[in-house]
Amino acid sequence: MPLDPLPYDKHLTDTLDALADRGWAVDHTLFDADLIAALRASCEARWQAGAFHAAAVGRAVNEARREDIRSDAVLWLDESDSDPAVAAYFQRMDAVRQAVNQTLYLGLAELETHFATYPEGAFYKKHLDRFRDDDARTLTAVLYLNPDWPADAGGQMRLYLDEACTQHLDIPPEAGTLVLFLSDRFWHEVRPTHQPRMAVTGWFRRRIGPMPW
């Protein structure tokens, strides 16, 4: 599923400007409907095949499953995946990485990413995406795969806009929505969902060590 080169049009410029100005951006243009549908189909098939596992918090010796903190399930992905939709996702995300580096000089080198599924009732409490003992994660990228998401279905990402977490933006997990934000600055959570919810969640990393799997 080859993609056209990432266009340096007004939408991408606005996304990069938002990242530069405030550290976060929401884009609805970089992934077309066909690719989103193919990614969702891939995610659903792997979920039905039992390929996912319960998500954990922390890393290395501090990694633990804490269902009081998060209740989603994940499946890690890599660029060698044979699924054309996953390969196309990595291709488009690498174009985003290059555009961000050219504009913001963040030194993004690699992407770690997984499918994430939230069954009905699942949530993820407020957290930061950068580990205390590993500062490689620099830019978070969450791509939603849920078409026609109802307003009353919950499952929004609540992005806290200030350090004290007194202001926030709730972002519905509607298919094609890509949320980008600096991993060490923005607390966020996933509100309890009232129906199954799927996403591709990734983190662009600076190259300071091996990948964590």
TrEMBL record:
**Keyword Iron recorded:** yes
The family database entries (Pfam families) matched by this protein are listed as: 2OG-FeII_Oxy_3
Q: Which GO terms describe its molecular function?
A: ferrous iron binding; L-ascorbic acid binding; peptidyl-proline dioxygenase activity
**Which InterPro entries would you find in this protein's record?**
HIF_prolyl_hydroxylases, Oxoglu/Fe-dep_dioxygenase_dom, Pro_4_hyd_alph, Pro_4_hyd_alph_FE2OG_OXY
Q: Which residues form the Fe2OG dioxygenase domain?
A: 107-206
Q: Which cofactor does it need?
A: L-ascorbate
Tell me the domain of life.
Bacteria
Gene Ontology biological process terms in this record: cellular response to hypoxia
Q: List the PROSITE patterns hit by this protein, alphabetically.
A: FE2OG_OXY
Q: Which UniProt keywords apply?
A: Dioxygenase, Iron, Metal-binding, Oxidoreductase, Vitamin C
Q: What is this protein called?
A: Proline 4-hydroxylase (Includes Rps23 Pro-64 3,4-dihydroxylase Tpa1), contains SM-20 domain
